[in-house]
Amino acid sequence: MSLTASLLHLPPLHSLKLSSSTTPTTTTTTHFLHGSIPLSLLSKPSSSLTNPTSCPPNFLPPIRAMRSLQGRVVCATSDKTVAVEVLRLAPHPKYKRRVRKKKKFQAHDPDNQFKVGDYVQLEKSRPISKTKTFVAVPVPARNSRKKDADGESAELGIPLESQQPQA
């Protein structure tokens, strides 16, 4: 029997005792047969990039970017307040087609300068009242597509047929 044990390079039977013997072979007792340590005794891995002391507390609100929206004034009857309708395109949840979605915001107009139909930009500010947290700012006028015939010919540098001398 010792000949087969030496051929297979197996340790003798007296060294294969369980951890319940009088001489402890390991300092921690394992609850698993294959000798792994329970998860409760393991600590979380830490990387060198994160420092556990510099983690911010999770009860603080997240910091958001300042919101700036554009819309059209739909109601200007209140004093120093305008209702602005903001239009955005969002995909339909089922059909994935882009659908127009509208939302009305109350905005502060300190000089009562805006009328119904004006395009304004809404800048986020401190709460002015229960529903007003935006200030209305005028948007520069867009380039109109309507052009005069004279302006169009001067732009191209070529006179129109009606402006050429008759020969």
TrEMBL record:
A single GO BP: translation
One term under GO cellular component: chloroplast
A molecular function (GO) term: structural constituent of ribosome
Span list, region Disordered: 139-167
Pfam families for this protein: Ribosomal_S17
SUPFAM superfamilies xrefs: Nucleic acid-binding proteins
Top-level taxon: Eukaryota
Keyword terms, alphabetized: Chloroplast, Plastid, Ribonucleoprotein, Ribosomal protein, RNA-binding, rRNA-binding, Transit peptide
Gene3D superfamilies: Nucleic acid-binding proteins
UniProt keyword Iron-sulfur present: no
CDD domains: Ribosomal_uS17
InterPro entries to which the protein is assigned, alphabetical: NA-bd_OB-fold, Ribosomal_uS17, Ribosomal_uS17_bact/chlr, Ribosomal_uS17_CS
Subcellular location per the Swiss-Prot or TrEMBL entry: Plastid, Chloroplast
Family per similarity comment: Belongs to the universal ribosomal protein uS17 family.
NCBIfam families: PRK05610.1
Protein name: Small ribosomal subunit protein uS17c
Organism the protein comes from: Morus notabilis
